[in-house]
Amino acid sequence: MADYKSILKGTLNSVTKKAKDSTAARCYANIAKLTLQINGEIEEQNKVFIEIGRLCYNENRDNPGERYAPLFDELRAMDERIEKMREELEAAKAAVEAGKNGGEYAEFYDVEDGNHE
Which residue numbers in the chain have pLDDT < 70? Predict the structure, then answer.
């Protein structure tokens, strides 16, 4: 199965070949092709930046240094919020299972926004 980049590249190449007589059409096709290539490279670059950040965090989580300390603190706070939400999720799943098995649903509240404090 061809991926979207191959399909789009084939289509753009086809358009470029058909538009040999039209300079404007060739220019637009080249603009589209280059834009796609640039966006693909930026996407790959962002993946590398993320991995660099993950490695840096893991290697320095206990001693981030003054410059990075606020960001590390922010990540720790996010980890705590995520863990709390995971606990709430598991409790909600357990309540549903208990209800399916004839038990009573535990007290539950609706999640209306991302603030769980």
Answer: 1-4, 15-21, 103-117
